[in-house]
Design goal:
By secondary structure, the protein is α+β, with helices and mostly antiparallel strands. The chain contains 19 helices and 16 strands. Strand 1, helix 3 and strand 2 form a beta-alpha-beta unit.
Length: about 450
């Protein structure tokens, strides 16, 4: 159970892997390859420009980190002579289109994102180029990445991508609204419902907002599913029998959807990330539980007039405990790329310690992956919000998360099917039990077709 006691820097370093705790996500992915020899990023800057005149294309998720890279891209182009064409798409589009590009052997892109829930499938299929030779040859420092975030991008001892995102679910809330009502941030699901009931004043102000788009809702939903004692699979990775219609899953889904229908500005509508961001930034809603990286605009005073009134906390706990969800996306080189050397130079620059610190401090992106950035005084000054250091919350989420289900290659299909079921419940097309029974039946078929043994 979460304690409100603030983590020390030593606590953070221990959890982040500096003292050997690299197995925080050991159930999520194979062990990462041993770190390459350490080297300063200045060595990269001193590299000659043998690839001057090369143009590479990058297919990237539309997030603040990538937008910040675009802003400072002229520095990289001046340093290397390499031109970079960036294409930004939403996460939902990337989930579909990236796999089409990779599976077809297309050479359209030289840098792409290694999506957490797709990484195992893509690496096993041989669609990505290993980075190990580049890392060794350039003596690139990978030891500064949190091991728990590096290992999901490796397979059979080879490193296929480097992480830029230490994503985890958190709760963002209007501290001024709760304070004026004499309320504390909710610590449990029961607390959450009580707080929402007291601050919900529609249509002027809604207590809550939740992302319900089918390809995205599977990230916050397992907070409830695991919080009630359930899971996507019975005991991943050993037993991958789906358990979507268990008694605990039904209770979790009932509470998850009830809160949306009673207190969210979305109600029965399907909401995606921009909708939730707009609701909070415009002062229309008070609490949102989702990915930390999606909160960045809400903490930026140039994008939200309520930025100084926001606070962060871990998601509430259920009867079975508190289970934040985590994800870590990275940058990789498609095997079919014709400009791998230039693509590596871009990745090395984009994820260097200096670039990542600038993206965190100047680019308003807190969910970074390097220990040196997360533990820096600059980060603490920038991301201590309402007395809580965001780095502490990231660390605690890594400690509490149980994410083995998320790296099963078939999870994206099943996650989308769960999202469909939630949509059916919210729109009153189906009861909770009927929707989950149908989702369970489809999930069993997906896993059976993939060759897994399904137990009774």
């Amino acid at each position: 159970m979460y304690s409100d006691k603030k983590l020390t820097r030593r606590d953070f370093l221990r959890a982040a892997g500096l003292t050997g705790a690299a197995a925080i996500l050991s159930s999520c992915a194979p062990q990462a390859a041993p770190p390459a020899p350490a080297a300063t990023q200045a060595a990269q800057a001193a590299t000659p420009m043998p690839l001057k005149g090369t143009t590479i294309k990058a297919y990237l998720q539309d997030m603040l980190y990538q937008r910040y890279l675009q802003k400072i891209l002229p520095e990289f182009e001046k340093q290397t002579g390499i031109k970079v064409q960036m294409e930004f798409v939403s996460f939902a589009v990337m989930l579909q289109q990236a796999e089409v590009e990779l599976s077809s052997g297309s050479s359209s892109y030289d840098v792409m994102e290694n999506i957490f829930i797709k990484a195992q499938r893509w690496m096993r299929a041989g669609w990505e180029a290993p980075l190990d030779d580049y890392i060794a040859k350039s003596k690139y420092d990978t030891s500064d990445f949190i091991p728990a975030l590096l290992s999901p991008h490796s397979w059979q001892g080879k490193q296929y991508a480097l992480p830029y995102l230490s994503e985890c679910t958190q709760m963002i809330y209007r501290k001024d609204v709760l304070d004026s009502a004499g309320l504390k941030p909710p610590d449990t699901f029961d607390d959450l419902e009580q707080v929402l009931g007291k601050i919900n004043k529609p249509p002027a102000f809604y207590g809550y907002v939740m992302r319900t788009q089918k390809d995205g809702v599977h990230f916050p939903f397992p907070i409830w599913l695991q919080g009630y004692g359930g899971n996507i699979f019975r005991n991943p990775p050993e037993d991958l029998t789906p358990t979507l219609n268990s008694d605990t899953a039904i209770k979790a889904t009932q509470n998850f959807t009830d809160l949306i229908l009673k207190y969210s500005i979305a109600g029965p509508q399907i909401y995606d990330t921009p909708d939730c961001q707009n609701a909070i930034s415009q002062g229309k809603a008070g609490i949102w539980i989702d990915a930390l990286g999606t909160f960045s605009p809400l903490l930026d005073p140039t994008k939200s007039k309520f930025a100084d009134k926001m606070a962060l906390a871990l998601p509430p706990a259920g009867p079975a405990g508190r289970f934040p969800q985590i994800a870590t996306h990275g940058f990789m080189i498609p095997k079919s790329s014709r400009n791998k050397d230039a693509a590596w130079q871009f990745i090395a620059w984009a994820l260097s310690g200096d670039t990542m610190k600038r993206a965190a401090i100047e680019g308003n992106f807190p969910a970074v992956t390097r220990k040196s950035v997360l533990t820096s005084p600059e980060y603490a000054r920038r991301y201590t919000i309402a007395g809580i250091n965001t780095g502490d919350l990231i660390t605690k989420a890594l400690q509490l998360s149980k994410c083995a289900y998320r790296v099963v290659p078939e999870f994206p299909q099943i996650g989308a099917r769960v999202g469909q079921a939630i949509g059916e419940i919210l729109s009153k097309q189906n009861s909770v039990k009927a929707a989950l029974d149908a989702a369970q039946n489809d999930a069993v078929q997906i896993m059976t077709a993939a060759g897994y043994k399904i137990s009774p």
